[in-house]
Amino acid sequence: IARLPGFRFFGNVTFGTDISHLEYKQFYDCIVYAVGAETDRHMNIPGEELEGSFSATEFVGWYNGHPDYLHKTFDLSAENIAVIGMGNVAIDAARILAKTADELADSDIADYALEALKHNKVKDIYLIARRGPVQAAFSPQELKELLELEMADVSIDPDALDLDSASEDALKSADKNTADNVCIMRNIHIDPDLSKPRRLHLMFLHSPVELYEKDSKVSGIKLVKNKLELGANGRISSKATEETIDLPVGLVFRSIGYRGRSLPDVPFDTDKAIIPNVCGRVTDLDHDKVIPGEYVIGWAKRGPSGVIGTNKPDAVETTSLLLKDFSENTVDELDDNLKPEAIEAYLKSKNIDYVTFKDWKLLDKYEVEIGHQHGKPREKVTTVKEMLAIIKEQRARQT
């Protein structure tokens, strides 16, 4: 798609800061918001603000070399770690913690993270989900990779696999991924292999209710045992019992979902954390008025649910409406004399150091070449300042 003649990419440009919503409207007939849901949901329990309590997104961003998370530090001397959630991000975080330095060495993990993880002292990682195995959101491939770790074993409480009737019924009509997940979990042994120094415990039907403190740091977590109930809406939800357990943990990573974030001068439904819309057409907050020429797709449109396969038909719906609006002349089109180069001239006039797709390819090539020299898929550049400097250097070499 990026090679098509009508496609352009402008990186390092911040909506609402470098260029306002009104300014965008001066250069484009339509705007499609595809901004996702980039903030994390909180557990809203006592102790969540303690040192040692993080979102899994922070940890994943840190070891992947994301510029926004370089400053984060994690106490990897903790022997026991809790990961709250049972989706792919939670699995990713647990897998990185359970891997040895040798297993990580040939990956594209950031160098500083690899150095820190070499001294990782973890022994037990608890993956904690409020509902059961049928409701787990990870993919079978992610689960299988946990079972292939060199120095870590996986265990599961057999009681969690004794499904309630509603979950049994849900499993009968579930998609292949869910069925595969349950099949894989039923083949996981109950007791961990003690010959391996690290253990991952899949704990279903538990919810965190409090983080314990020692010297202003996380020292433990209190969990309540749940049971599943089928609601009138047909949804299986968890309900707390009176049974609780305590786990001594020194780090807690939450991965319990995401929330959208508002954009300057763009309508935003704070309750649903989405851009208000009707089938992808942006509306005012009361959904009474469609805003011509503005559209939304993905998680910003419907909330944080589904994956790439879900987003494709979602995007088709929105795009079809955009094309329909153009064909019916319901979009206020810009002056035909406005040249495509106008936006570039405007960004330059504001001294915004924007990055084109060609520039991105230069940086991509640089990272891959440097990575191959060290036996890795790529060597990630982890600061925007360095990225821009490399792009400028690579541009100069091509002239």
Textual characterization of the structure:
With 399 residues, the chain is α/β, with parallel strands linked by helices. Helices cover 32% and strands 21% of the residues. The chain has 13 helices and 15 strands. It has a six-stranded parallel sheet. A hairpin with a 6-residue loop joins strand 14 (281-283) and strand 15 (290-296). The longest helix is centred in the C-terminal third of the chain and has 20 residues, at 308-327. The model has no long low-confidence stretch (mean pLDDT 93).
Mean pLDDT: 93
Which term fits the overall shape? globular
Give the helix tally: 13
- Contiguous uncertain segments of 5+ residues: none
Content-based structural category? alpha/beta
Largest sheet: 6 strands, parallel
Instruction: Tell me the series of helices and strands, N- to C-terminal.
Output: HEEEHEHHHEHEHHEEEEEEEEEHHHHH
Radius of gyration: 24 Å
Q: Determine the oligomeric state from the structure.
A: single chain
Strand proportion: 15-25%
User: What is the straight-line distance between the termini?
Assistant: 26 Å
Sheet with most strands: strand arrangement: 3-11-4-5-7-6
Give the tally of β-strands. 15
* Residues in helix, %: 25-40%
